[in-house]
Prior knowledge:
The protein is α+β, with helices and mostly antiparallel strands. Helix content is about 30%, strand content about 35%.
Amino acid sequence: MYIPKIYENTNMNEVKHFIQENSFGILITQQNGKSLATHIPLELSTNKTGKDILVGHISKANPQWHNFKNGGEVLAIFNGPHSYVSSSWYDFEEVPTWNYIAVHIYGAIKTIEGDALYKSLKNLMEKYEKPSKNPAKIEDMSDKTMRQINGIIGFEIEITDIQAAYKLSQNRDAKNHQVIVDELENTNDSGSKAIAQQMKKERKKR
């Protein structure tokens, strides 16, 4: 991913937290020169050797799994909040732009099954069922329901590279930066408000 230095985030603790909070990503692979993509939850974890991995699964009906050659490189994309930034907000002439947070992860993929697949599904359910009044548990599901596992392909991606772009008007002076924040906070758009909060956090680092 092309990232101007001023927008690059190299704080891996911060980036990993972002991935955990925005784990519904896009898995991209190549097959015979054609790009294939699937929108799925991809959970950040570590393997037995302590290396960072992404864990997920897709349906066997999805042809993308046929090119999950063990060790083959794949790309996972995670998107955060984003917002249009109007040039009318500046005290000087400039073109409009877009503020956003995005993370690209490259890694080697391999399929998993058996206990490893079961554990990944259990962890996924526990994470997203936690806010429920009566959380569903994989341990309580019947054999009939659990047979649906036969219709999915589990996988792990051993991470080799993480690229994080936090484009948050870092190139603007204090006055114009504050105006952008104020304008974004005054919108009715949740993404714009979220970007405003991220802009304030980023500016505090300076």
